[in-house]
Amino acid sequence: MLLVELTLAALTLGGLYALIAMGLTLQYGVARIMNLSHGEFMIGAAFLAYWLVSAQGLHPLLALCIALPIGFALQWLVYQTLLMPLVRRAPSPAALEVDSILATFGMLFIVQGIALVIFGGGYFSYDYLSMPVHVMGTAVAANRLLAAGFAIVIGLVVYVVLVRSRWGTAMRAMAGAPRFAHLVGINPRSMAAFAFALGGALVAAAGVLVSMFLPFSASMGVTFTMKALVIVIMGGVGNLMGCLLAALLLGIVETLVTRFIDPGLTLAATFAIFLLVLLLRPQGLFGRVGR
């Protein structure tokens, strides 16, 4: 029974982390934007779900359907208005990465500040499927199972589309060789804007799913951004399968630390693994040298 409990907990964490990190790896891998405000938009989606469910009486899954296009449109707008001027003036991809880090670092505090003014620093949650269900003799909260299921399904659908479709091939080509993308008919700026917006939709979905079972606050976004960065680097930048596997690995590690050592050490364990990867395999656990 303990094995079932640990497996379900690891899948829940890993599925949500994968969804958050896939959004970030798309934004960085294709658009070359290291978005340090990624987690703030996830928390923004969680607050949107809270408002839709608590004040408007909508079903959380309907809130998920509403948050996805809003997350896409909002991030597309951010890319076009804030980041496109940086793209136009950047003399090289390296310069764009530095500029985008500084710009999104500032955006982190703007989004977080707005959320703190509106909602304050307290924790928020709403009641949804909090009753336990029994899986192979182990009691698990139904909302956690539902969130994990949706996270895994959404992540796998995006992965399959990116790997199997012609459109996904174009996006991966853009990620692998952006300088030559225009030679095969790809509009680099349109593709980058689309990838950035798709990353926003994924992180919005993650925010709604997190709000179903976890109390959240306006200042929690930084933690999720840092974990997404760790997963992206562990999985190999731009490597979607590596991202999924690294997220699952992080979910397993955090579950084991919480269960057998101390819940307060999960973040320390996360960054201990991160430091080891940086020292021993800087291209990531699933990345390739020279990419």
Automatic annotation (TrEMBL):
<keyword id="KW-0614">Plasmid</keyword>
<keyword id="KW-0813">Transport</keyword>
<keyword id="KW-0472">Membrane</keyword>
<protein>
    <submittedName>
        <fullName>Branched-chain amino acid ABC transporter permease</fullName>
    </submittedName>
</protein>
<dbReference type="InterPro" id="IPR052157">
    <property type="entry name" value="BCAA_transport_permease"/>
</dbReference>
<dbReference type="GO" id="GO:0006865">
    <property type="term" value="P:amino acid transport"/>
</dbReference>
<dbReference type="InterPro" id="IPR001851">
    <property type="entry name" value="ABC_transp_permease"/>
</dbReference>
<dbReference type="Pfam" id="PF02653">
    <property type="entry name" value="BPD_transp_2"/>
</dbReference>
<feature type="transmembrane region" description="Helical">
    <location>
        <begin position="6"/>
        <end position="26"/>
    </location>
</feature>
<feature type="transmembrane region" description="Helical">
    <location>
        <begin position="100"/>
        <end position="124"/>
    </location>
</feature>
<dbReference type="GO" id="GO:0005886">
    <property type="term" value="C:plasma membrane"/>
</dbReference>
<feature type="transmembrane region" description="Helical">
    <location>
        <begin position="192"/>
        <end position="216"/>
    </location>
</feature>
<feature type="transmembrane region" description="Helical">
    <location>
        <begin position="59"/>
        <end position="79"/>
    </location>
</feature>
<feature type="transmembrane region" description="Helical">
    <location>
        <begin position="260"/>
        <end position="280"/>
    </location>
</feature>
<feature type="transmembrane region" description="Helical">
    <location>
        <begin position="144"/>
        <end position="162"/>
    </location>
</feature>
<comment type="similarity">
    <text>Belongs to the binding-protein-dependent transport system permease family. LivHM subfamily.</text>
</comment>
<keyword id="KW-0812">Transmembrane</keyword>
<dbReference type="GO" id="GO:0022857">
    <property type="term" value="F:transmembrane transporter activity"/>
</dbReference>
<feature type="transmembrane region" description="Helical">
    <location>
        <begin position="228"/>
        <end position="253"/>
    </location>
</feature>
<keyword id="KW-0029">Amino-acid transport</keyword>
<feature type="transmembrane region" description="Helical">
    <location>
        <begin position="33"/>
        <end position="53"/>
    </location>
</feature>
<keyword id="KW-1133">Transmembrane helix</keyword>
<keyword id="KW-1003">Cell membrane</keyword>
